[in-house]
Amino acid sequence: MLAVRVCEVRHAALDVLSFVLAPVDGGPLPACTAGAHIDVALPNGMLRQYSLCQTGPALRLYEIAVLHDRDGRGGSACAHRDIRPGDTLMISPPRNLFPLLPTGRPVLFAGGIGITPILAMAEALHAAGRDFELHYCSRSPERAAYRDTLARSAYAPQLRLYHDSAPEAGRLDAEAVLRRAGADAHLYVCGPAGFISHVCSAARQAGWDEGRVHFEHFAAPAAVAPPGGNGSFELLLARRGLRVPVAAEQTAAEALLAAGVDISLSCEQGVCGACVLPVLDGLPDHRDVFLSPAEREANRCFTPCCSRALSPSLTIDL
Ligand code: FES
User: Fold this and answer.
1) Superfamily of domain 233-316 in the CATH hierarchy
2) Which of 21, 174, 277, 289 is the right S-S partner for 62, CB 3.0 to 4.6 Å?
3) Is 70 exceeded by the pLDDT of residue 275?
4) What is the C-alpha to C-alpha distance for residues 88 and 75, in angstroms, rounded to an integer?
5) What is the whole-number distance in angstroms between the Cα of residue 256 and the centre of ligand 1?
6) Which atom of ligand 1 is nearest to the CA of 266?
7) Per DSSP, what are the bridge partners of residue 194?
8) CA-based max dimension of the chain
């Protein structure tokens, strides 16, 4: 982890604050590419992932933006309430699970706070002289973070803004946009789960293959327990010869940690992939948004922070 100082806290939109972070030791920050995020250790002990709004090879500052999610689990409320200029925070080096491909014409879609990695992508594409278009949807202009930055940018003509509160200005017809895009186009979408699913299904309707569709969730949709509630199951750790029971009210990750088995954890909501474990036998009940449809179908790995088992046990390569 890296210690950074909070240089500035800005109002970026209604319910959105942006935080500008500089390394405590004054040196350059680790290089990162558009779409990257960092883990931030919040003052309440939670670890949360935030996309970097600007990226590049030798940044002196990182900027993240946090939407106050009143229905969330407390991470964003803590960030808004407890992080002040001058505070020191611990962050991870950037990781990029949502990279831009070097070829193809990007069609960028952002919903709400999903603009953060998309803004970094637009900046990077413009700097590289690549053609792209950006469609940005928000509930109202006051809720559209970085609206002024985008409107003032040199690539403003490639930007379309849509606000639920101003439907007369035009509604997003994602399928029409994607039908118009050329055969070399690639879709990049970030935003709430419903927005991502809407745009991805529009891509399918428009005949796009999955290989040209790229998305990043910033929060997992709320997990829905099956009608009878969660069941218990058992983890069999093949290399250790250990059986770890997972009770109905605990996650597989909690059971492993309680049994003294060290595993990596970050988002703890099935978003980041930090906890993925290889499965040798058994049927996982995938509840994450990290694994691809093909990976879920193959059942060769699972995310113990949120996923469970459909079979009485799962044999793990641990
Ligand atoms: S800790 Fe992020 S997916 Fe499990």
Assistant:
1) Beta-grasp domain (3.10.20.30)
2) 21
3) yes
4) 17
5) 14
6) 1
7) none
8) 64
For residue 13, give the nearest of 157, 108, 112, 81 by alpha carbon: 112
Output the pTM of the full model: 0.83
pLDDT, position 220: 61
- Ligand 1 center–CA 159 separation, angstroms: 33
In percent, the amount of the chain with pLDDT more than 70 equals 97
In whole angstroms, give the CA distance from residue 144 to residue 12: 8
The CATH architecture one would assign to domain 105-217 is: 3-Layer(aba) Sandwich (3.40)
Ligand 1 binding pocket includes 277 (Cβ within 6 Å): no
From CA 153, how far away is CA 119, in angstroms rounded?
A: 11
Cβ 178 under 6 angstroms from ligand 1: no
For 26, counting Cβ atoms within 10 Å of its Cβ (0-12 exposed, 13-18 middle, 19+ buried), the class is: exposed
Question: Where are the alpha helices (H) located in 182-316, listed in sequence order?
Answer: 193-205, 252-258, 293-298
pLDDT tens by residue, 63-107: 999 999 887 778 899 999 999 999 999 999 998 989 999 999 999
Specify the CATH architecture of the domain 2-91: Beta Barrel (2.40)
CB of residue 267 inside a 6 A radius of ligand 1 = yes
CA distance 301 to 85: 41
